[in-house]
Specification:
The protein is of the alpha+beta class. The protein contains five helices and seven strands; from the N terminus they run βααβββαβαβαβ. A seven-stranded mixed β-sheet has the order 1-2-3-4-5-7-6, with helices on both faces. The two termini are 14 Å apart. The relative contact order is 0.15.
């Protein structure tokens, strides 16, 4: 796991678009937005980590926003060809460690409650369902609605409390 650089930007976008095919097959939407570019992700406040298999291949990424003293996982994607190998969990753990190093006591995310690789996966990694209480978190409920994400199932806000010791 390492911080993403400009050399990773096209891979990040490709990985998310490939991973989104799982949602497209499951939900059969009439339209699904394409991924943000890696450069756009890197330009937002926060951090972007990649799972690098070797010097030429990136297999996944996690994009974490830092907004209003909040640390929020905006996107976690692993290339389908590398799924179920522990890379998603490793990226999630790396993001939690980085958040802890940056002084955060918790990290949040929004996801589908009933998609196996969403809320159940995050719950297995220490996230619990919580009510979105900050203005930023409540605004994400509106973003879900505006993007039409809530049409495909219940969306939930989840939080992981970060202990003081690094793991």
């Amino acid at each position: 796991m390492r911080s993403a650089g400009p050399q990773d930007f096209s891979a990040i976008e490709s990985i998310e678009n490939a991973a989104d095919q799982l949602f497209i097959r499951r939900f059969e939407p009439s339209d699904w937005p394409g991924a943000l570019s890696g450069a756009d992700r890197a330009a937002t406040p926060g951090f972007l980590l990649v799972a690098e298999l070797d010097e030429t291949e990136v297999a996944g990424f996690v994009h974490v926003l830092e907004v209003e003293d909040i640390c929020h996982i905006e996107q976690l994607s692993v290339a389908p060809s590398h799924a179920r190998q522990g890379l998603g969990r490793a990226l999630l753990d790396a993001a939690k460690q980085q958040a802890r190093r940056r002084g955060y006591s918790q990290v949040s995310l929004r996801t589908y409650a009933d998609v196996p690789w969403n809320a159940p996966f995050y719950a297995s990694a220490g996230f619990i369902e919580a009510k979105p209480v900050t203005e930023f978190h409540r605004s994400l409920v509106g973003v879900d609605s505006a993007l039409g994400l809530d049409a495909f199932g219940r969306r939930v806000h989840m939080v992981a409390i970060l202990d003081a010791s690094p793991s």
